[in-house]
Structure to design on (213 residues):
């Protein structure tokens, strides 16, 4: 009977697939336990890969955390590039995205609790968020968002509106009587976000929406 190849050998033959498995496993581990509580050996076990290969690809736990962050930032940048800029569309979309990617929200919560103000990969993340604020300024120039609003606080408010129910599922259930993952709650929330989007629009905008350029 043929012997199966060792995990390290299989990983070396398909590094892209191995990296993907490691990043997916790392996201789940960091979301469950935070940076401080996560264990590299647990991530390797989740990914079904030799721990030595994990260190070979990523160097260590901090570098792996940084890699997960950069991948999530890249995913969100690609999604943002395809939105029209209409706040009603954007708010509902990002709420649905948060519901589908609750591990990302939990990972950010753990970071806020455990890092004591220090932010891993802060320079890259600050630049990414600066681009998000710049997108809001562009939408203000196009008349999609009121120019009277501070774009930095618009960006923060949009994240609060879309991520809070996932970040605090117990408060969501206590207030609404429903789980954040209940399809009925998600439909209600999406409708609410489309309604509240009017707050972000210029007072004279009405229902007019400029097409994306």
């Amino acid at each position: 009977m043929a012997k199966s190849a060792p995990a390290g050998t299989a990983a070396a033959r398909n590094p892209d697939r191995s990296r993907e498995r490691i990043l997916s496993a790392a996201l789940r581990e960091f979301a469950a336990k935070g940076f401080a509580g996560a264990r590299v050996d647990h991530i390797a076990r989740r990914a079904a890969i030799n721990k030595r290969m994990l260190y070979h690809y990523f160097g260590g736990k901090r570098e792996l955390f940084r890699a997960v962050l950069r991948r999530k930032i890249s995913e969100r940048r690609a999604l943002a590039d395809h939105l029209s800029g209409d706040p009603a569309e954007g708010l509902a979309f990002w709420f649905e995205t948060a519901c589908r990617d609750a591990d990302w929200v939990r990972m950010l919560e753990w970071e806020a609790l455990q890092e004591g103000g220090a932010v891993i990969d802060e320079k890259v993340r600050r630049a990414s968020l600066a681009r998000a604020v710049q997108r809001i300024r562009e939408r203000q120039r196009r008349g999609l968002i009121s120019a009277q609003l501070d774009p930095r606080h618009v960006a923060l408010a949009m994240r609060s509106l879309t991520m809070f129910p996932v970040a605090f599922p117990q408060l969501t259930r206590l207030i609404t009587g429903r789980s954040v993952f209940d399809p009925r709650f998600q439909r209600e929330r999406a409708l609410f976000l489309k309604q509240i989007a009017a707050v972000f629009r210029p007072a004279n905008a009405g229902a007019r929406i400029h097409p994306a350029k």
Notes: The chain is about 70% helix and 0% strand. The chain has a mean pLDDT of 88. The chain has two domains: 1-69, 83-204. The first helix runs from residue 7 to 13.
